[in-house]
TrEMBL record:
<keyword id="KW-0689">Ribosomal protein</keyword>
<comment type="similarity">
    <text>Belongs to the universal ribosomal protein uL10 family.</text>
</comment>
<dbReference type="GO" id="GO:0070180">
    <property type="term" value="F:large ribosomal subunit rRNA binding"/>
</dbReference>
<dbReference type="GO" id="GO:0000027">
    <property type="term" value="P:ribosomal large subunit assembly"/>
</dbReference>
<keyword id="KW-0687">Ribonucleoprotein</keyword>
<dbReference type="Pfam" id="PF17777">
    <property type="entry name" value="RL10P_insert"/>
</dbReference>
<dbReference type="Pfam" id="PF00466">
    <property type="entry name" value="Ribosomal_L10"/>
</dbReference>
<feature type="compositionally biased region" description="Acidic residues">
    <location>
        <begin position="305"/>
        <end position="315"/>
    </location>
</feature>
<dbReference type="InterPro" id="IPR050323">
    <property type="entry name" value="Ribosomal_protein_uL10"/>
</dbReference>
<dbReference type="Pfam" id="PF00428">
    <property type="entry name" value="Ribosomal_60s"/>
</dbReference>
<dbReference type="InterPro" id="IPR040637">
    <property type="entry name" value="Ribosomal_uL10-like_insert"/>
</dbReference>
<protein>
    <recommendedName>
        <fullName>60S acidic ribosomal protein P0</fullName>
    </recommendedName>
</protein>
<feature type="compositionally biased region" description="Basic and acidic residues">
    <location>
        <begin position="295"/>
        <end position="304"/>
    </location>
</feature>
<dbReference type="InterPro" id="IPR030670">
    <property type="entry name" value="uL10_eukaryotes"/>
</dbReference>
<comment type="function">
    <text>Ribosomal protein P0 is the functional equivalent of E.coli protein L10.</text>
</comment>
<comment type="subunit">
    <text>P0 forms a pentameric complex by interaction with dimers of P1 and P2.</text>
</comment>
<feature type="region of interest" description="Disordered">
    <location>
        <begin position="287"/>
        <end position="321"/>
    </location>
</feature>
Length: 321
């Protein structure tokens, strides 16, 4: 009875804490905490202290508290967190910038050796070079089909070798070899899985988007809307400029092919009747600009000539002082 009472009190305190955090914070990062030690977690808490709070716990307890909060506040949007609470995860409540918080979390990753049975989070490549191991250790390399040679009494790896692929389990031979070489290929820390902001859940990749990326995506969306509108002849704000231009082209084509005319078509008709007039006008317009350019060149030459003469006069005067 005493044990059950203590458990109930712990659950109650946890519910109160989580519900209070849900009331105070509108931004939450859902993070995976696999292979994260207690010392590392303490460092992360210290680094985030100020505007962020890390809360860990059993998934069943977190789900229970979130449901209680949703029922008490009629905030159904908070239920979007429930499907995300799978595996060894925790919640980081923050009032700061989500991207900055994620970057701060990334500073506390620590290197770890390749343990037997561990699923490799990345590809592990053994680089070529001298291993410092004596020739009696060549059996490790032979088992793993790593080409080696003996150089100055030590084993040297000839070419880079992909020892472990991402997603594969680390074998005993691979773990032993990496340990002998002093290679700690993996690094672990809190990994952001999802982000929650005022009821919306999105992937952490969204945090990497810049203003230029958003503008590009918006422009692509506008172009798609305009293309669809033009294809089905349905007027929209995106397609309106193109529709006006196309209508003007159609009206201009009709005016050129018939006696009908309007002010914007008169100049085009004159050009079609006598293109030489416009050629003369273009030459006349270009002439002043070319003349001005030639005049500038002549003025620069005169200035350079005057400067040269002045420097020669100063030199002569200096000789007879």
């Amino acid at each position: 009875m005493v044990i059950r009472k203590e458990k109930n009190e712990k659950k109650k305190k946890y519910d109160e804490k989580l519900c209070r955090l849900l009331d105070e914070y509108s931004q939450i990062l859902i993070v995976a905490a696999d292979n994260v030690g207690s010392t590392q977690m303490q460092s992360i808490r210290k680094g985030l202290r100020g505007d962020s709070i890390v809360l860990m716990g059993k998934n069943t307890m977190m789900k229970r508290s979130i449901r209680l909060h949703a029922e008490a506040t009629n905030n159904d949007a908070i239920r979007n967190l429930l499907p995300l609470l799978v595996g060894n995860v925790g919640l980081i409540f923050t009032k700061g910038d989500l991207k900055e918080v994620r970057e701060e979390i990334g500073k506390y990753k620590v290197g770890a050796p390749a343990r037997v049975g561990l699923v490799a989070p990345i590809d592990v490549v053994v680089p070529p070079g001298n291993t410092g191991l004596d020739p009696s250790q060549t059996s490790f390399f032979q088992v793993l089909n790593i080409p080696t040679k003996i150089n100055k009494g030590t084993v040297e790896i000839i070419t880079p070798v992909e020892l472990i692929k991402k997603g594969e389990k680390v074998g005993s031979s691979e773990a032993a070899l990496l340990s002998k070489l002093g290679i700690r290929p993996f690094s672990y820390g809190l990994v952001v899985l999802s982000a929650y902001d005022s009821g919306s859940v999105f992937s952490p990749e969204v945090l990497d988007l810049t203003e230029d990326d958003l503008l590009q995506k918006f422009a692509t969306g506008v172009a798609m809307v305009a293309s669809l509108s033009l294809a089905i002849s349905y007027p929209t704000i995106a397609a309106a400029p193109h529709m006006f231009v196309n209508s003007y082209k159609n009206a201009l084509s009709l005016a050129v092919a018939s006696d009908y005319s309007f002010p914007q078509a008169e100049k085009v008709k004159e050009f079609l009747k006598d293109p030489s007039k416009f050629a003369v006008a273009a030459v006349a317009a270009a002439a002043p600009s070319s003349g001005a350019a030639q005049q500038d060149k002549e003025e620069k030459r005169e200035e350079a000539k005057e400067e040269q003469e002045e420097s020669d006069e100063d030199l002569v005067a200096g000789l007879f002082d």
